[in-house]
Backbone:
């Protein structure tokens, strides 16, 4: 964008033009946390499936729907499938009505339902949280949390974490190259790779930790510990009454849902 | 001269770095060995040199970073926090000044990281095995041999986590020993991991 | 011109060392001047800068004797955050001075003002003004983590200038930069001088210091061995005795003097040397 458009963007509240993206981050967090924890606490396929479907409907209304469904699919294959197979194996031959037989041993219906409970609990929990994290920038969430009282040091730690992860990965790549230049092999057989762990990991950790001194001085030079009110260049609009209502209602319904789920399902 | 404020600033910056160390250590160790996670090295380090509270914060933040990729990991938050707290308290006892004392603490971390984590997963997954190496290699064979399911799972998790934690503790110890003393004494718990003391009586 | 920084018999030793890094420092620094701090490695230049900035002993620990007065107030009585606003600090490693939590250079420069609660319109105006002075106006939309060393150093300057500190301490800012980056930094130093700021710059690049600084403070073995106007200090023989590097043109003029072919006055920078040579040639 042009410089003028760029500067003008700071004079307005930040908006992305999609209703779910622009949903107030804290209200969105409450909404997703409530639904996610209801899946976890009730642990029944009916609840998990309902939340999973809701997350899917929300995903379809956002530009990230392809990435969302791909991630959900991969997480199912990596996270759930193996556990389902292990569970079915463990419960093979258990007493009770049999759903089907494998190698002459019956897989009970109870085991199938247990696996469905697990799969939909994970997919529901995962789905609703993925919809939160894929559509909410951490800096926006941190800004909103600061507005409601979270200390700026806490939000700084959260934001700095993501930046540190990026820089340390770059450092890891550079150290790997430098060690290769010194004749330390980092690719190949298991023994070779195990031997290269310390020569690669150590310099990364030590140099990153000792570099903290300079970082601290730099933050100090930006009045990081100044007391008093803070302002922000990049702002998010306060939560609208409808957003607050949705968050609160979801929380109440989920608490009621947890109780009802535990009693009746 | 007040020293408290300056140490707070460095600790504040150590915390995100330690989370990044957890991430990168996991990338290097787990991809190579498929058994050792290494994702507690940063937590143990900060707990040892900055104290139990910063260590706990590292544990919590590390967990939150994992939650973004795999939200189910949120149930592990109390354990990651516990690693930081335990590390801080052990540092105060002078454990990190000696290699054998550091390694002897493996079962403590293994109990928290293995036994307790296994219990949480067991309960969270509806009282059954989770599909991981610990269950497959140790838990299920023990169960098939007649050991109660929960105990079989917990022993498997404990054993595997001890392997992970002995490596994490070893690396954390070696890192602490390699850090310059003039750097360590600036940190709140630096005095517990080094024998050098700032000399207030220098004649200048 | 008033005095902004005063050292009264200051000695300081870092923790875990037996020897003082600086001993018996006595000097005053006046408002609005540009001071160059020169000397061999381990001469005490960085410690001198750290003392002014209040990092010794507040950040580094150690033992301080004597008094450091900033704007008439003892260092011990300054609040950390007030001191960080009154005295700006730019140091060697350009990449360490990027916060990493802002996605554009524009926001990076504004970070300090956000911490001080400056209102939005004033922030925007100041960022645009400062970015023109330090020549990062074409980089405002870029990610600070994607910048080169020289660009990072300019952004670091901008971030510090945004706080409107009257005193700027700069510790070897060009040690990791290429010649173009070095020239950019000294252009910024010139702009700071013209804006009436007090600048203290520790550097090894003697030729550039001689061109831009009003006064030179020469340090060796932890002591101030010479202080005064640039042209007086650079010809002081004690600099050569203590192996403090001097600009090439000064060395050349001193050698010519020994051969009986000296100039009317010793030039301290290339322009002066050229003018004197032309005068000698009758041009």
Residues:
């Amino acid at each position: 964008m042009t410089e003028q458009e760029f500067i003008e963007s700071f004079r307005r509240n930040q908006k992305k033009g999609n209703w779910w993206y622009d949903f107030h981050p804290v209200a969105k967090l409450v909404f997703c946390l409530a639904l996610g924890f209801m899946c976890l606490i009730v642990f029944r396929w009916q609840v998990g499936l309902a939340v999973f479907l809701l997350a899917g409907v929300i995903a379809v209304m956002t530009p990230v729907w392809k990435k969302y469904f791909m991630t959900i699919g991969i997480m199912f294959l990596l996270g759930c499938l193996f556990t389902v197979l292990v569970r079915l194996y463990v419960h093979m031959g258990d007493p009770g009505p049999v759903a089907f037989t494998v190698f002459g041993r019956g897989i009970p219906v109870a085991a199938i339902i247990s696996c469905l409970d697990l799969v939909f609990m994970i997919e529901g929990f995962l789905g609703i949280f993925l919809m939160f994290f894929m559509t909410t920038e951490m800096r926006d969430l941190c800004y909103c949390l600061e507005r409601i009282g979270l200390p700026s040091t806490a939000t700084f730690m959260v934001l700095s974490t993501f930046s540190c992860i990026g820089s340390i990965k770059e450092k890891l790549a550079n150290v790997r190259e430098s060690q290769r230049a010194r004749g330390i092999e980092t690719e190949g057989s298991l023994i070779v790779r195990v031997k290269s762990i310390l020569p690669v990991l150590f310099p990364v950790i030590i140099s990153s930790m000792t570099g903290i001194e300079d970082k601290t001085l730099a933050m100090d030079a930006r009045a990081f510990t100044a007391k008093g009110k803070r302002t922000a260049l990049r702002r998010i609009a306060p939560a609208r009454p409808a957003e607050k209502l949705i968050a609160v209602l979801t929380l109440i319904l989920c608490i009621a849902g947890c109780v009802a789920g535990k009693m009746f399902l | 001269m007040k020293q408290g404020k300056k140490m707070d600033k460095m600790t504040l910056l150590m915390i995100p770095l330690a989370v990044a160390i957890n991430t990168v250590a996991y990338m290097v160790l787990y991809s190579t060995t498929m058994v050792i996670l290494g994702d507690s090295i940063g937590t143990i380090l900060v707990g040892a040199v900055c104290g139990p509270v910063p260590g706990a914060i590292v544990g919590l933040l590390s967990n939150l970073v994992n939650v973004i990729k795999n939200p189910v990991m949120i149930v592990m938050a109390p354990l990651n926090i516990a690693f930081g707290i335990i590390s801080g308290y052990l540092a105060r006892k002078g454990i990190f000044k000696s290699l054998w004392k550091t390694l002897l603490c493996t079962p403590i971390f293994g109990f928290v990281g293995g036994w307790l984590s296994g219990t949480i997963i067991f309960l969270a997954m509806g009282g059954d095995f989770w599909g991981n190496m610990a269950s497959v290699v140790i838990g299920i064979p023990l169960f098939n041999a007649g050991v109660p399911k929960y105990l079989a799972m917990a022993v498997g998790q404990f054993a595997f986590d001890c392997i992970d934690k002995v490596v994490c503790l070893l690396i954390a110890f070696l890192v602490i020993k390699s850090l310059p003393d003039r750097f360590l004494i600036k940190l709140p718990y630096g005095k517990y991991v080094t024998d050098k003391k700032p000399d207030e009586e220098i004649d200048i | 011109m008033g005095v902004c920084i005063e050292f009264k018999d200051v000695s300081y030793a870092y923790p875990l060392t037996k020897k003082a890094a600086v001993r018996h420092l006595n000097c005053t620094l006046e408002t609005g001047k540009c001071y160059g701090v020169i000397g061999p490695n381990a001469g005490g230049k960085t410690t001198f800068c750290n003392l002014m900035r209040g990092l010794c002993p507040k950040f580094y620990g150690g033992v301080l004797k004597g008094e450091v007065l900033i704007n008439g107030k003892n260092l011990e009585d300054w609040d950390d955050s007030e001191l960080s606003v009154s005295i700006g600090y730019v140091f060697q490693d350009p990449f360490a001075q990027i916060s990493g939590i802002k996605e554009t250079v524009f926001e990076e420069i504004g970070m300090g003002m956000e911490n001080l609660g400056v209102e939005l319109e004033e922030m925007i105006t100041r960022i645009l003004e400062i970015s023109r002075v330090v020549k990062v106006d074409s980089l405002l939309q870029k990610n600070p983590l994607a910048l080169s060393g020289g660009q990072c150093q300019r952004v670091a300057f901008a971030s510090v200038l945004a706080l409107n500190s009257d005193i700027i301490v700069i510790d070897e800012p060009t040690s990791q930069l290429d010649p173009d980056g070095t020239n950019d930094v000294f252009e910024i130093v010139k702009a700071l001088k013209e804006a009436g700021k007090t600048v203290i710059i520790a550097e090894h690049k003697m030729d550039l210091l001689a061109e831009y600084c009003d006064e030179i403070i020469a340090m060796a073995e932890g002591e101030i061995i010479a202080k005064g106007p640039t042209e007086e200090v650079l010809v002081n023989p004690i600099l050569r005795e203590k192996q403090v590097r001097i600009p090439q043109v000064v060395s050349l003029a001193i050698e010519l003097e020994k051969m009986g072919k000296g100039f009317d006055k010793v030039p301290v920078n290339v322009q002066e040397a050229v003018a004197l040579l032309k005068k000698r040639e009758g041009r």
About this structure: The mean pLDDT of chain B is 86. Chain B has ten helices and no strands. Residues 97 and 193 of chain B are 5 Å apart (CA to CA).
